[in-house]
Write a structure and sequence with these properties.
This protein has a single domain, classed as all-alpha NTP pyrophosphatase fold (Orthogonal Bundle), CATH 1.10.4010. The protein is an all-alpha fold. It holds the Pfam family dUTPase_2.
């Protein structure tokens, strides 16, 4: 923290205190509250990183950043698929470390949350999730997820908010569906995400 100015140090301390409070004094407020916290912490972290690294979005170009996040989500989704080896039908399935799956999943989730914050799609709730259709075929699910990412990018670029929002909600619920298929529950994802952010702030 020696290269940080006073404002940056206070900002970092503020974020650490938020994460510490969530981890230490967390009282379950249900899925809705936990989803809201994921979106909020991701937003706080990204704003902190921008200030710390002096990222100028105007210089980099908003369109480039837009494309970058969608590309990153596709790449990180591919890394989950590669970790599961679900596409290698001719190979004997091996036991995969849950921690490895969590790492890959959280890496992708960060970009999914970031896109949601950028476009005001961060209104996912338990009611919407409960109404979603469950897919038990992981190959089909990955295919649907990739289709949704492409569809979301197109509709967001056209500023078709309602279509983009519906697509994002479907994509997000499919990501939660994916978590179940690879043996992860939401509680594990939530806790690991918060702990991971806390480690990044060390």
């Amino acid at each position: 923290m020696t290269n940080m100015n006073l404002y940056q140090k206070l900002s970092l301390l503020y974020i650490k205190n938020i994460i510490y409070y969530i981890l230490k004094y967390k009282v379950s407020g249900g899925l809705d509250m936990e989803l809201n916290e994921l979106f909020k912490v991701q937003e706080i972290m990204e704003n902190h990183i921008k200030k710390l690294s002096n990222i100028d979005e105007e210089i980099k170009g908003k369109e480039n950043l837009f494309d970058l996040k969608f590309l990153a989500l596709q790449v990180k989704t591919g890394e989950i698929a590669n970790t599961t080896k679900c596409y290698k039908y001719y190979k004997v399935k091996k036991i995969i470390s849950k921690e490895k799956l969590l790492i890959r999943y959280i890496d992708a989730l960060k970009f999914l949350l970031s896109i949601g914050n950028d476009h005001n799609f961060n209104i996912i709730n338990e009611e919407v999730i409960d109404k979603s259709k469950y897919e038990d075929n992981i190959i089909k699910l990955f295919s649907y997820i990739y289709d949704d990412i492409t569809d979301l990018k197109k509709s967001a670029k056209k500023d078709d908010y309602f279509h983009a929002l519906n697509t994002y909600v479907r994509l997000f619920t499919r990501y939660l569906n994916l978590a179940e298929l690879i043996g992860l529950n939401f509680s594990e994802i939530y806790s690991y995400y918060m702990e991971n952010i806390a480690i990044e702030l060390e």
